[in-house]
């Protein structure tokens, strides 16, 4: 499903604008014309509001002050004007990210779309690479992009025609950089891509110019240091000498300057003297920069020192709330401690609520542990193998983290972990996208119990049948044992006291037979059991807890029932995809937003499904349902519904009222459907998609014809409602338009009769003589079956001007990529309304157009041998409003709002009074009076147009108005 989403704004008739001597129109010009019928105070108020919004976005508060300091600013501004792709290269802590942030903060508001991808390589390493690239493209194109679309021609086309600003921050991996940049190969000439890295080599061939960030000179260093120490850009009286010494110690590195400045903030003279002496005498083995950074660490309270080390070793880039839970369980005052580390610039919190730490500070933590006393030390990777083998210093170990994808041997003794009495954090993991390569040598008899101090346990491919006996789970916050050999976690009598775990993750444990007593898990929120193929039963008490939030059971092939005695409040997500033997499902909750029952054995839905008041997405694909319960229509929040491959389904009841996306592919027994008018009832930024592909038993004419009429009616309502969208939009040209796509079998039929222009070719040429009365266009194509697989097929419509054959806008696309409809089994009609292409056509100034239709598919967008029987175009006119409002029973307020919005737009039309006659014939036109306020014009008309009110041909804008426009443009640009 794909509709071109180019941001456009409805602009006045360009010929009218050119006639008054204006050749270049700024984007904000629409404000003037929107408010022509209002007094000057409203016009000025609107412009002030617009300027305020845009100027407030220029410099985010976190960059306050830095824009005045950075000596590199002029150079980078020059590069931004000359080059499209810029690499920013330099050592860690030198300020690459700061420069990129400054450039982004200053310029992103001037672009149609923008994205700042922080720590690009770390994010990609932590999550699936495809998902990160999908997030990047989704941010740029302002709609959800799936991995199957990454290489599509339509994505590249959209990126080429959209002015975008992209920053990929902290890239240190050439492969990941190539992967992220692959879809960005066709950026338009006005777009900009900035990449920051420490490795100059990976920028080769990717960027047009490389900018090296050097250490700051003394003047700029002093300003940044003094901002932290004195909240001004120069030293206070009596501190100039001390400041100079401190600045020299920082070595021109912005991170060190910032940390050191905050360290001396509001400190007395004696403190400065003592600290500077200390810096000169200590830290010889840490290097000059780390010596500076260590000053802040040394002055931390003991508990915060431990928290700093824990973050550096275990929690960098982890979710802040997760870190606080673990540290709280360790006895720390976590919230206050994290805030204190943040205030001292030792950590930062990202926009996604992840704790981040600069690499220099992390290296400082590693060095502190390496050269410090071996007391309660954390260990990583290389040290772990030696510690486990020799068992030296076991009583000092408080944390272990080890990457099992490394090719090393790891020996574990039965009493290895039992002797680590301070062990709080154990993580033996396989990173996402990698495989286990470590050769593990566990004891045959199993291991002895872990320390009662353990708060976090993660062990991928845990080799034993159960956790050691006895097992203390009273203080454990999370348990992760994915891909393990366990047959049961623990026996009921093994648990001492209660279970404090909030998360239990034992996914892909193929030998797990049953999940025993979790009744004492009084804090349990997340239970991950995906892929536990031998699991037959889930005790109902799991769903009696008022804490449970997520239960994942997808791929549990032997699970037969899932029963909840109560209607739940807290459960937000449950996944049972692929539980092919699951017959009984009676779980319901007020909080569930997504429910996936794909390919289960369920043949009847429990009526309790109607109580899921927050359910947004429901997937019933492949179920053996004969019908849907009457309560189904009570799902008032449901926006996406999939019934594909429900081959026993014969009748569709009334659908929920707020659906946006509806898949019913391959429902081969479906005969009768309900009305689709429900799709027209709520129009608030919807991208509506309706598909009955390969529903070959649909009754004709009752179902096919009625659904087609309802679909076209929905598209016309969307066109009228888009007038409200434009009228109410708070941001110039950034419209959340309503768009509609619709497909159903159409055996032996021609283009629907509603389409005035149809031809048995792939190109249509039309002349539009009533442009002032047009709202948009509906496109249609009738497609016949073919032998081609059409997994990535899309129907494209490209518009050209008849004279000169200039391309008008981007191609409009109807894309189907549903995995179940790689082949059509009969003739199908595809109908869609694209508001963005419609807008471009209506404001192009042309009156004659050619529309070229084609079908392409695959990664290289090759032409497919799928014959188009016919294609057609249906204009949408203002005169249809009365019919539409009557058919849909629109309420009086909606009718009035649409009428007022139409009038507001139509005041620019030279036939405004004729347009108004469709709504209120008694209204009079006052557009001329409004124009007189800003233009010198007379009533004499010396043009050859047929208007009866005169025109502005040959007239000039008044000097005050020209000055006003220039000033506004200067403020914005």
UniProtKB/TrEMBL annotation:
* Top-level taxon of the source organism: Eukaryota
The NB-ARC domain is annotated at 81-232
Alphabetic keyword roster: Leucine-rich repeat, Repeat
User: Per its UniProt record, what Gene3D superfamilies does this chain match?
Assistant: Helical domain of apoptotic protease-activating factors, P-loop containing nucleotide triphosphate hydrolases, Ribonuclease Inhibitor
Give start and end of each Disease resistance protein Roq1-like winged-helix domain.
303-370
The Gene Ontology biological process terms listed for this entry are: defense response
**Which is an annotated GO molecular function term of this record?**
ADP binding
- Cite the PANTHER family for this sequence: ADP-RIBOSYL CYCLASE_CYCLIC ADP-RIBOSE HYDROLASE, LEUCINE-RICH REPEAT-CONTAINING PROTEIN
Protein name from the UniProt record: Disease resistance protein (TIR-NBS-LRR class), putative
Q: List the source organism.
A: Medicago truncatula
């Amino acid at each position: 499903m794909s509709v071109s989403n180019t941001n456009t704004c409805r602009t006045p008739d360009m010929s009218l604008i050119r006639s008054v001597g204006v050749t270049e129109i700024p984007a904000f010009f629409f404000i003037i014309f929107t408010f022509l019928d209002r007094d000057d105070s409203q016009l000025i108020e609107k412009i002030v509001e617009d300027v305020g919004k845009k100027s407030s976005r220029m410099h985010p508060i976190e960059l306050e002050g830095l824009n005045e300091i950075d000596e590199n600013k002029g150079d980078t501004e020059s590069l931004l004007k000359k080059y499209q792709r810029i690499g920013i290269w330099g050592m860690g802590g030198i300020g690459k990210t700061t420069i990129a942030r400054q450039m982004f903060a200053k310029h992103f508001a001037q672009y149609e779309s923008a994205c700042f991808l922080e720590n690009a390589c770390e994010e990609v390493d932590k999550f699936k690479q495809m998902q990160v690239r999908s997030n990047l493209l989704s941010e740029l194109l302002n709609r959800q992009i799936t991995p199957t679309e990454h290489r599509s021609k339509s994505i590249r086309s959209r990126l080429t025609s959209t002015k975008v600003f992209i920053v990929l921050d902290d890239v240190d991996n050439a492969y990941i950089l190539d992967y992220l940049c692959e879809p960005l190969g066709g950026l338009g000439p006005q777009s900009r891509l900035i990449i920051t890295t420490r490795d100059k080599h990976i920028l080769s061939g990717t960027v047009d110019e490389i900018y090296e960030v050097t250490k700051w000179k003394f003047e700029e260093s002093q300003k940044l240091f003094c901002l932290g120490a004195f909240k001004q850009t120069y030293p206070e009286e009596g501190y100039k000498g001390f400041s100079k010494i401190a600045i020299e110690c920082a070595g021109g590195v912005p991170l060190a300057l910032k940390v050191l400045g905050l360290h001396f903030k509001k400190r007395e003279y004696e403190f400065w003297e003592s600290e500077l002496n200390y810096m000169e005498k200590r830290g010889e083995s840490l290097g000059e920069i780390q010596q500076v950074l260590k000053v802040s660490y040394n002055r931390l309270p003991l508990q915060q020192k431990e928290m700093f080390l824990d973050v550096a070793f275990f929690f960098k880039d982890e979710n802040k709330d997760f870190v606080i839970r673990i540290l709280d369980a360790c006895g720390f005052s976590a919230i206050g401690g994290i805030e204190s580390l943040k205030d001292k610039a030792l950590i930062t919190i990202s926009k996604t609520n992840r704790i981040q730490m600069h690499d220099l500070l992390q290296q400082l933590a590693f060095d502190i542990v390496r050269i410090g006393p071996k007391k309660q030390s954390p260990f990583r990777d290389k040290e772990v193998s030696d510690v486990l083998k020799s068992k030296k210093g076991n009583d000092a170990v408080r944390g272990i983290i080890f990457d099992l994808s490394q090719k090393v041997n790891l020996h574990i003794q039965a009493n290895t972990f039992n002797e680590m009495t301070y062990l709080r954090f154990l993580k033996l993991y396989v990173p996402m996208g990698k495989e286990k390569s470590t050769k593990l040598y566990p004891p045959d008899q199993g291991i002895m119990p872990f320390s009662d101090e353990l708060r976090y346990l993660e062990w991928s491919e845990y080799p034993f049948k159960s956790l050691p006996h006895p097992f203390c789970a009273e203080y454990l916050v999370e348990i992760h044992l994915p891909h393990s050999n366990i047959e049961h976690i623990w026996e009921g009598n093994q648990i001492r006291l209660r279970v404090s775990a909030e998360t239990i993750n034992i996914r892909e444990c193929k030998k797990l037979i049953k999940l025993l007593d979790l009744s004492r898990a009084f804090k349990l929120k997340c239970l991950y059991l995906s892929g536990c193929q031998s699991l037959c039963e889930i005790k109902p008490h799991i769903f009696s807890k008022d804490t449970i939030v997520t239960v994942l059971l997808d791929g549990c092939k032997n699970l037969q029932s899932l029963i909840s005695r109560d209607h739940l409040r807290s459960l937000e997500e449950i996944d049972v995809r692929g539980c092919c033997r699951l017959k009984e499902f009676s779980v319901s909750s007020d909080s569930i937003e997504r429910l996936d029952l794909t390919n289960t054995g369920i043949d009847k839905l429990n009526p309790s499904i109607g109580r899921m008041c927050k359910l947004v997405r429901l997937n019933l694909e492949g179920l053996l349902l004969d019908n849907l319960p009457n309560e189904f229509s009570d799902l008032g929040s449901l926006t996406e519904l999939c019934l594909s491959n429900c081959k026993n389904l014969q009748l569709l009841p009334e659908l929920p009222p707020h659906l946006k996306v509806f898949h019913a592919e391959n429902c081969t027994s479906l005969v009768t459907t309900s009305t689709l008018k429900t799709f027209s009832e709520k129009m608030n930024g919807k991208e509506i998609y309706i598909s009955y592909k390969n529903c070959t038993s649909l009754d004709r004419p009752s179902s096919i014809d009625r659904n087609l009429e309802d679909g076209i009616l929905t598209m016309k309502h969307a066109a009228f409602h888009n007038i409200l969208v434009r009228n109410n939009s708070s941001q110039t040209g950034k419209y959340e338009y309503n768009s509609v796509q619709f497909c159903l079998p159409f055996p032996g039929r021609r283009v629907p009769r509603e389409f005035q222009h149809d031809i048995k070719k792939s190109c249509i040429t039309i002349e539009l003589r009533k442009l002032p009365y047009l709202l948009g266009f509906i496109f249609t194509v009738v497609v016949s079956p073919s032998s081609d697989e059409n997994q990535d097929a899309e129907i494209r419509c490209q518009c050209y001007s008849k004279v000169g054959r200039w391309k008008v806008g981007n191609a409009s696309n109807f894309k189907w990529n549903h995995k179940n409809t790689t082949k059509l089994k009969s003739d199908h009609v595809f109908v869609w309304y694209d508001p963005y292409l419609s807008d471009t056509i209506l404001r192009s100034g042309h009156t004659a157009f050619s529309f070229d239709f084609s079908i392409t598919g695959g990664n290289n967008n090759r032409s497919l041998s799928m014959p188009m029987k016919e294609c057609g175009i249906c204009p949408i006119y203002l005169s249809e409003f009365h019919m539409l409002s009557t058919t849909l029973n629109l309420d009086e307020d909606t009718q009035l709002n649409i009428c007022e919005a139409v009038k507001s737009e139509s005041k620019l039309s030279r036939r405004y009074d004729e347009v108004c006659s469709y709504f209120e014939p008694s209204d009079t036109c006052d557009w001329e009076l409004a124009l007189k306020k800003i233009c010198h014009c007379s009533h004499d008309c010396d043009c050859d147009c047929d208007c009866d009110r005169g025109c502005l041909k040959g007239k000039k804008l008044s000097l005050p108005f020209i000055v006003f426009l220039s000033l506004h443009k200067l403020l914005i640009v």
